[in-house]
Every structure is written in structure tokens, then in C-alpha cells.
Backbone:
């Protein structure tokens, strides 16, 4: 068996080979027992290597002065996607731009709508009612002002006041006449 | 500061197992692997601004690799034979026996321990490339950056590591039989 064939068998076993190499080696393995045996061995090893795990001892982080937060890493299904995006600067920039555009569109499209869920007719009616209320209040103030000016000041304050002044004048006039007579 | 901590937490959670796994296979010793992992985590925190998050994996593995070398030098584990391993040497790793002529029984079931033992028995440079590619999932380019070697050398080392691993597993089986 030559080196090139052996290398191809190894690549197929470890899953690195292209489709044509795979077909070629599978075909050869059916015809040649040595190829089949070698492929089987390497495949067995490759499979075992891929299953191999080394458990990370958490004591390392506990003894560390610079400790990461104790929160456990989120094992969400989105983690590979985030990792894929974050590891590629162009994708990261594109994602940030897309998010910004979405936020801006949402902000500006939201401005034209009222945020309280009232219809246009309800708003007009409320506006009309506010104007009517203000007009009523204004009328009350005007009426009060008129009453104060024409009735309270003239009849209830001004007239008694002028009568009082007249009485005082009369009293003074009477007094001075008596002094002249004496 | 908050951003720095968030970045650090992300990097630690993402790479801690990778760092420990690599150190464990390179140093063949859990205590030393733990020490190296701690040192790498501290270096990540101290050098947070010196690498981009997109190239963090290569930077972290390069740092881990360099620290492993320092530890091995201290322990004098790298033998001259391992250091002088030539990836371009096309010597048949099966020795004078052709693959087809070997009479052996490959183990039917490969236990996790036997695989780990065989990986640890690989020559240093083959082991580093094999562990980074097969166990830690780095790409050729990332391994090339981490170990500071051309991509073609990475490919050659990987192929030779796979062959050597197979040889080690056969030897393990033979040891068990005898």
C-alpha cells in the first residue's frame, strides 16, 4: 500500500476528505481487505478521539485572584450563533448596523402614532370638550367681574360710602354754622 | 471596567476548557495543567486590550503553548529527540514494516484512558498540533498562528500525528497481550 493511499484513508477516517476521495476509498475498501481493515482501524480511533473529553476542574477559578463572575455560562441554543457572529468582525459590524436600523425605524415609525390608543374622533371630541369647559370657566370669571364692578362696588360699597361721606360733611357743615352763631 | 469584566467572563467561559485540555495533554500532569491554566487566565485579564476578541482564540492558545514550553523546559521533559523532529522527513513511521505486512490485532474497544495515554505518548510537536486540531477544534490557520509555523507544516504534523497515534494504540494492545 502506498503512502498516498494511506494518507487518503486517514483523511477519510477523520472526516477531512472531499466527496470524491470518500467515494474512491469506500470503493477500494469493498474490493481490498487491507484497505477496509486500515480504514476501519483509523475510523475507530477517529471516533474515539472525537468522543474524548477533559473535565475542567472548577477549583482553578476558585483559587484565581482575577475571578470571572460566578454566573454559569448560558447553554442556550443561540450560543453558537452569537459565537459565530462575534468571531467575525464584518458580521459583527453588519449585525450592529442592522440592529441600529431596526431601532431607528421603530422609533420614528412610532412617532406618527399616538401612544395611548385613542381614535382621531375621540381626540377631536376631547379637544372640543376642553374648549367648552374653558369657555364656561371664562364666562364665570367674566360674570363675576361684571357683578363685582356693577353691583358690589357701585351699589353695595360705593353708594353706602358716599352716603356716609355726605353725612359726615353735613355734620361738619352743621358744626361750623353753630360755632359762627356762638 | 464593566465592559472589561464582561469580555473577560466571555473569554474565560469560552476558552477555559480548551486551555486546560491543551495544557493537560502537553504537560501530562494535572497539577501543572492547572497552574498553566491559572497563569493563562491571569494573562488574559492583564492583556485584555492587546488582542481583538476575534483573534482571541489564537492569542490564548499561543500563550498557553508558550507557557507549556516554559514548564516543560523547567522540568526538562523535552528531549533532544522530540525537539529535532522533522515534519518534512518522509520516513515511514511504521519502520521497515509495510502497513500491509504488520501482523497485529487492533483493539476492538478503545477506552478513553488508552486514547489519552496514546496521545500523551506522541512526540511533543505532533501532540500539540493533534490536540489543537482534533480535541480543541482549531483550524489550520489558527494552529499556524498559535504555534508560529506554516500551515503546510501543520498539515504534515497532523497527518504524522494521526499515524503515530495509531502506532501507539497498536503498541498498547501488544503490551496488554504480552
Residues:
Amino acid at each position: 500500500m502506498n503512502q498516498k493511499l494511506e494518507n487518503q484513508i486517514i483523511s477519510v477516517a477523520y472526516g477531512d476528505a472531499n466527496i470524491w476521495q470518500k467515494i474512491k476509498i469506500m470503493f477500494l475498501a469493498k474490493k481490498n481487505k487491507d484497505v477496509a481493515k486500515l480504514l476501519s482501524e483509523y475510523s475507530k480511533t477517529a471516533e474515539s478521539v472525537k468522543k474524548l473529553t477533559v473535565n475542567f476542574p472548577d477549583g482553578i477559578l476558585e483559587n484565581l485572584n482575577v475571578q470571572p463572575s460566578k454566573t454559569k455560562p448560558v447553554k442556550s441554543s443561540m450560543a453558537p450563533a452569537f459565537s459565530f457572529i462575534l468571531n467575525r468582525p464584518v458580521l459583527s459590524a453588519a449585525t450592529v448596523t442592522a440592529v441600529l436600523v431596526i431601532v431607528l425605524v421603530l422609533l420614528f415609525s412610532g412617532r406618527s402614532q399616538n401612544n395611548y390608543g385613542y381614535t382621531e374622533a375621540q381626540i377631536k371630541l376631547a379637544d372640543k370638550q376642553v374648549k367648552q369647559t374653558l369657555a364656561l370657566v371664562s364666562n364665570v370669571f367674566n360674570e363675576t367681574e361684571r357683578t363685582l364692578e356693577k353691583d358690589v362696588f357701585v351699589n353695595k360699597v360705593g353708594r353706602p360710602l358716599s352716603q356716609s361721606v355726605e353725612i359726615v360733611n353735613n355734620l361738619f357743615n352743621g358744626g361750623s354754622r353753630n360755632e359762627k352763631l356762638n | 471596567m464593566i465592559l472589561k469584566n464582561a469580555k473577560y467572563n466571555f473569554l474565560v467561559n469560552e476558552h477555559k476548557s480548551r486551555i486546560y485540555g491543551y495544557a493537560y495533554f502537553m504537560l501530562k500532569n494535572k497539577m501543572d495543567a492547572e497552574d498553566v491554566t491559572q497563569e493563562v487566565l491571569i494573562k488574559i485579564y492583564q492583556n485584555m486590550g492587546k488582542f481583538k476578541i476575534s483573534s482571541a482564540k489564537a492569542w490564548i492558545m499561543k500563550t498557553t503553548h508558550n507557557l507549556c514550553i516554559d514548564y516543560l523546559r523547567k522540568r526538562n521533559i523535552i528531549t533532544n529527540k522530540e525537539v529535532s523532529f522533522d515534519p518534512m522527513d518522509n520516513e515511514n513511521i511504521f519502520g521497515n514494516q509495510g502497513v500491509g505486512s504488520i501482523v497485529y490485532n487492533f483493539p476492538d474497544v478503545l477506552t478513553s484512558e488508552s486514547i489519552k495515554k496514546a496521545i500523551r505518548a506522541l512526540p511533543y510537536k505532533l501532540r500539540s498540533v493533534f490536540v489543537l486540531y482534533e480535541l480543541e477544534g482549531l483550524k489550520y490557520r489558527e494552529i499556524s498562528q498559535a504555534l508560529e509555523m506554516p500551515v503546510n507544516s501543520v498539515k504534515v504534523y497532523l497527518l504524522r500525528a494521526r499515524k503515530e497515534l495509531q502506532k501507539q494504540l497498536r503498541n498498547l494492545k501488544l503490551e496488554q497481550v504480552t
About this structure: Chain A is about 75% helix and 0% strand.
